[in-house]
Prior knowledge:
4 helices; alpha/beta; eleven-stranded mixed sheet; Udp-n-acetylmuramoylalanyl-d-glutamate--2,6- Diaminopimelate Ligase, Chain: A, domain 1; UDP N-Acetylglucosamine Acyltransferase, domain 1; ten-stranded parallel sheet; 37 strands
Amino acid sequence: MTIHEIAEFLQGELVGNGNVEILRVAKIEEAGPGDLTFLANPKYQKYLGTTRASAVLVPTAHDIGGRGDEAAPALIRVRDPYLAFLRVLKTIMPVVDPFPTSIHPTAVIAASAGLGVNVGLGAHVVVGEDVVVGDNTKIAPGCVLAQGVHIGSDCLLYANVTVGHNCRIGSRVIIHSGVVIGSDGFGFAPKPDGSYEKIPQLGIVVVEDDVEIGANCTIDRATLGETVLKKGVKLDNLIQIAHNVVVGEHTVMASQSGISGSAKVGKHVVIAGQVGIAGHLEIADRSIILGQSGVSKSLKEPGKTYFGTPVKEHRKAQRMEVAFRGLPELVETVKELQRKVETLTKAIEKKS
């Protein structure tokens, strides 16, 4: 596509030479000839004068200014440069579909399994006894569906996903590579001799519709009953969900966070990266827990933002952080006041 064609496609205003063909998309600081980039965050404004890109998507209100340099990239003014960039990205570089459209001859399928219409199974997929897979679901190479697993329609399982026995997955669920659903919960009872007796993990995992689970997440089965990811939950990579946890509808979690056993997380909760939530707690709807926070008590008021370890309301945590940073100066002030008090005390004692 030429720059002119892209401007028309986006219904944007073109400033500069529109005849150059765009071959790729790139970040503004790395772009070169033939590349399209975008400027959405003001902190990247400094790169606009040095970028070697052929064209840049800029906000509608962007000041064009004096553009006497013929080598300057063409500008396309649009309402939202980032969304416009994504539209072009999907057009120029369509997403590669890694999923099988048929059943590979090396797939192992139990006789009692039931496969819906238009199911795709990649190389070396294992489908166990009494497994049910819904219509249009695609399962990439190396996945294992253990006995009794139920998977809905229109799901995508990337390579090397394992779903443990009897777990249930809804429709339109996306599960990325390396995920393990239905691993044993961490349950051990101490014995008198100091060793541990493993507690049987007899429950299952239920993943409801429209959930997406990032790479290398682990979702433990319940000790008894169910571990549940409710409708619309989105998990980043490298997240641990322990046994009997319930994550409410449309909650999102960023990478390296973990929820301990039997915790209940509400709806529309936002959990940032490296957050730890202790077991048996309740997190209210619409809570926001900022990165690297440690939650050691239930958060029962909906819609509040929290930060810190142990977690506190964000504004209180900010005030405490400001005070903490001032502690060295405060200590010196206290020492100086102490010295003055001692001097005054000695002077009073001499007069008396």
